[in-house]
Amino acid sequence: MIKSPHAALSCAQVIARFNLSAAPSSFVPTHPKRRSAVVMLLSESEHGAQVLLCKRGAHLRHHPSQLCFPGGKQEREDKTLAHTALRELHEELNIDSKDVTIIGRLDEVSTLNDMSITPYLAQLRAGARWQIDQNEVEAAFFVPLAELLATQNWQSLQVERQQKNLHFRVFKTPYGLLWGATERIIERFTKRLGPIS
Fold first, then answer.
1. How far from the centroid of its chain's Cα atoms is residue 170's Cα?
2. Domain with 159 in it: what CATH number?
3. Is 168 or 162 the better-scoring residue by pLDDT?
4. Which ranges constitute the DSSP H helices of 1-60?
5. Distance between CA 171 and CA 51 in Å, rounded?
6. Domain count, the chain
């Protein structure tokens, strides 16, 4: 993997740049009943900020074995989409909300099946413990943020769907390819951080 100019950034530096950037635009989903939220969870490492990713269970009906951020569909009892994100984080990885600090929200993205996803940037408390729920998650792992931000680490993939050729950017990990809505969230996050000299 090739590192980017963001390589030396700590979580604090990433968060500072994020807070100084433009706020996400207002967005009204086409299908307000089909809403979900995910957490782009930062953690500090000796090599700077890193991001937590999950590999969905192979037995799941929707998006089996895909790589994603922790998260899921909004439920009636969720007061806000931030509550949705934190509830799903606890269900999937047993991470308590007291161990997570929500930093802010990114622009929503829509999936090919018209699901609206609201991503939240958050930081995991140092020393916090977590354990995957194997009914939902096959694996969870950290990727250095610097590697995700380096455009050289992304490749182009063409997929035929419903007699249309679709082009995606993909990122290789030991657990498979990262692409789709998660890739678009990372791309928008990268743009929001802006260039670093």
1. 14
2. 3.90.79.10
3. 168
4. 11-20
5. 14
6. 1
